[in-house]
Write a structure and sequence with these properties.
Blueprint: E1 3-5, E2 14-18, E3 30-33, E4 36-38, E5 40-43, E6 47-51, E7 61-65, E8 68-71
Antiparallel strand pairs: 1-2, 2-6, 3-4, 3-7, 5-6, 7-8
């Protein structure tokens, strides 16, 4: 994961995570926000998009792919 934006927003906010080696095959890449899984809205090899759930809380974003795991260096703020 190289970046994400925006860095803050309420539930329903669309967050774009950029990086490399993201796997667009269904089920191969997962995203967690503050330790809770969130559905991926769209994904390709370099970018994924998710929406902050209504139960979302501030915390780190973690992306797991078949190639490894990356965690944001700062909290996403809800």
């Amino acid at each position: 994961m190289s970046s994400y934006s925006p860095g803050y927003g309420p539930s329903g906010t669309t967050v774009t995570v950029s990086g490399s080696y993201l796997d667009p095959v269904a089920g191969q890449t997962t995203v967690m926000l503050n330790g809770n899984g969130v559905p991926i809205d769209s994904i390709n090899n370099t970018q994924l998009v998710f929406s902050v759930p209504s139960t979302g809380a501030s915390g780190l974003i973690q992306v797991t792919t078949p190639y490894g795991q990356a965690t944001s260096s700062s909290n996403y703020l809800v």
